[in-house]
Amino acid sequence: MNISSLLQSSKNGVDSAVEVSYPLYRQLLEAYVEDAAIEDSIYYLGEALRGGAVDVDTFLKSARNMARRQFFLRQTVQKCVAKAGGR
């Protein structure tokens, strides 16, 4: 079975391609994925600022809010890893 057939046959598409058996690992995965998404969002927000599509006030307000959320997500990832027996 290849990935495209897996995605087509799954009812939720990409979201159901990865299934996690334990709630702790699900929490870890979701926090990590959201952290990565915020990282990308902050990068592209910076690109929008450089391109003049976003003003400085909007950039700072948005980046600050995303960075705050990212901080808590990274704490969650660290706690989950510690609880799961990692570093």
How would you describe what is shown here?
This protein has 87 residues and is mainly α. It has one domain. 74% of the residues lie in helices and 0% in strands. The protein has three helices and no strands. The chain is flat and about 45 Å long. The termini are far apart.
Quick rundown:
With 87 residues, the protein is mostly helical. It contains three helices and no strands.
In terms of DSSP E residues, the strand content is under 5%
CA-atom Rg in angstroms: 17 Å
Total helices: the number is 3
The major beta sheet can be summarized as: none
Report the average pLDDT across residues: 88
Note poorly predicted spans: none
Based on helices, strands and strand pairing, what is the structural class? Answer: mainly alpha
Throw out a few tags for this protein.
3 helices, 87 residues, flat, mainly alpha
Explain the layout of strands and helices:
Elements: H1 3-9, H2 23-51, H3 56-83
